[in-house]
User: Fold these one by one.
Assistant:
Number 1:
Amino acid sequence: MTTLLWGVLPYVVFALLVAGLVWRHRYDRFGWTTRSSQVYESRLLNIASPAFHYGILFVLVGHLVGLFVPESWTDALGVSERTYHLFSLYGGTAAGVLAVAGIALLIYRRRTRAPVFRATTANDKLMYVVLAAAIVTGMVAKLSHSSGDGYNYRQSIAPWARSLFTLQPDLDRMAGVPVLYEVHAVIGMVLIALVPYTRLVHMFSAPVQYLFRPYVVYRSRDPEQLGPRPERRGWEKTGS
């Protein structure tokens, strides 16, 4: 089971992620979207969407730092394990609460607004369940080991995660990892595998080109310079 979860599953997830992205880009480009439901309801969405997106962004950054910045680097900067733990505990909890509040409001909106609910697919429901489970289990795991310096996952889970990129998974690092952290890691991998097959695929569509595109200039119409409008053709005329 250890080999299956920590030595095989991560590569299966990576294969599903890459294959799904390639398939969606090649055969479902018009489906590569959030399928926004803002046209049906915008008041709640304008609150829930920013809360969720900012929360999940901070959660993602925290995971990237925790997993891929070695403990020796923060030690070299003079950041003690106690300081790192407190920053991770309070900062991660705040980000998690913001993300959970956002996703809870999004789910409430979908359930109570009939047009939005009718536009919700089984795929969306599965995505919400897995996404919420990943966030909640991460928060519960962190809070359940919050006393003292907490659980130092940077000496177990983080080295294992980095070893995956060398194609030599360090399975021994996962021995003794608390069950809640293991559950969170498995659900997180399932979520990654689902990304290309759900509306979450839009996370790979950052509008970077907007930073470099030329400005679109709009000019008001000056009747004196442009003269009178041309006469409308028959099918363009409005009824009297």
Note: The chain has a mean pLDDT of 86.
Number 2:
Amino acid sequence: MPVAIITGASKGLGRALAEALAARGWDLVLDARTPEVLKGTAAAVGAYGTRVTALAGDVTDAGHRAGLVAAARRLGGVDLLVSNASALGAEPLVRLEELPLDGLRRALEVNVVAALGLVQEALPSLRAAPAGAVLTVSSDAAAEAYETWGGYGASKAALDQLAAVLGAEEPGLRVWAVDPGDMATDLYAAAVPDDDGPRPDPVSVVPALLRLLDERPAGGRYGAPALLEGVR
């Protein structure tokens, strides 16, 4: 069966995608920082009957990244790498004049440096896979100028560029950056705690990601709403 590594998999979009892939028979390696929450997610995903390895840790730790890829190899390889783990840089978000530089460094380390490090670790297995793919979770803040979203948006813009260049350098792989749009996630709640307006459940975005896997369009940046058009 195909094997996927998903970072930031204990909640939100990461967990929703993990459950959808497990329902399709994928074996999974799941990452998150909080062991207790990740353990519960792994149990729920494992109920689909697939093999699930859950490794709690920080994606900025090279040893942890190596452990994720090693676990995937034990399951058969790496067919799909999903970089979903994200850091905001400040919680709640603040204007650039107030953004702690250490917070910006943290966002860049988690959202960009760690994502590239994991790709580098997994590349031999991805190249050997019958249909290797990398999926990075982007944001509309990477392309639009929203007040207080500068640090996070800059990190996601950098991730988009890395994904684009990786796609050019690795023509045998599919490399997709996906802007999922607004979602009701803990990340958004931490970013803008005063905004309690209704937002879509991350589960509603999963069909967009599955469409990429099913149809394997050219690498590039995609918006979930466009991918969801025509999806039933």
Note: The beta strands are 3-6, 27-32, 52-56, 80-83, 133-137, 174-179, 220-223.
Number 3:
Amino acid sequence: MVTAAFYFATLEDHATLLDYLGEPDKVTLHPWPVVRNPLDALSREEALATPQVLVVNRDLGPPVPVRPGDDAMNQPTKAGVFNRLNWDRLHPAHDEALVDSNASPVLLWVPAETGSEVIGVSQLGSQADAMAAISADYERWVNRTIGWIRRKGTKVWGLEQGTVRPDLNIELGFINSVYALPGAFRALEQGAAGR
């Protein structure tokens, strides 16, 4: 992700996050990156079992679809190359499109599997190269959401020496800052592994 929060969460933590976002009244959940019109809706339970979830804020608008022939597909940019690669890899049907990440005021949510013994790292953020180019309201929403995760969570992993918690069973292959939301933090303190 271009701008994202990485975090550990229990099912209760995920529910609290979705409540904060205003699901289902203010935001809706959908499969990512292939979309239809109208969008296929996911329940919370379905979203938690989906590898990548599109979070749409009703006030900011729907995702912008991209198909072969559209400018976003033909640009000689990194985004254009990824759009073409994803189209070839995913083979969307004639009534489907990809999400144009650089034009869509949406979040990408990657909910990790959560168990009693192992908690995975979830991600939530924006794929846009420049959030402000979509809208100032969108950029504020993304930053507010990431800020909420950081305020509610406890930093348990990262590059800074004081960030790594040697008392917790966390083994990750990256150095991004990772926060544990309250339920996950309790589970990690009680011996759950963070992976």
Note: The chain is about 30% helix and 25% strand.
